[in-house]
Write a structure and sequence with these properties.
The protein is mainly alpha-helical and about 100 residues long. About 65% of the residues lie in helices and about 10% in strands.
Length: about 100
């Protein structure tokens, strides 16, 4: 895997003015994945919105890692429920449209 599209954790932490240990702790909680290449650690670009949200929760709102874990799991469940609701609504519209045509 090339580090071309990856975000180096050291640079990310400097930019956000946070400790590298915070990212390591997020990884230890299973909230993010760290990719190790040639003894350097990286984040995937698609993880950035979630990581930045966790940074705000921790540093701005003073929420501990256990709280961030709970919040992340609840947000994942809400997203899954919203997708399920959208799918169900689309099926209902299709059914209603089919009933109107008959």
């Amino acid at each position: 895997m090339s580090s071309k599209n990856l975000i180096q954790i050291k640079q990310f932490c400097v930019y956000h003015e946070i400790e590298n240990t915070f990212i390591t702790e997020l990884h230890n909680y299973g909230l993010i994945k760290i990719i190790v290449l040639e003894e350097d650690e990286y984040l995937q670009p698609e993880q950035l919105p979630a990581v930045e949200k966790m940074i705000r929760l921790h540093y701005d709102l003073k929420i501990n890692l256990e709280g961030i874990d709970v919040i992340a799991n609840l947000l994942d469940k809400i997203e899954a429920l919203q997708q399920n609701l959208t799918t169900t609504q689309n099926k209902l519209r299709l059914y209603e449209h089919h009933q109107i045509e008959q």
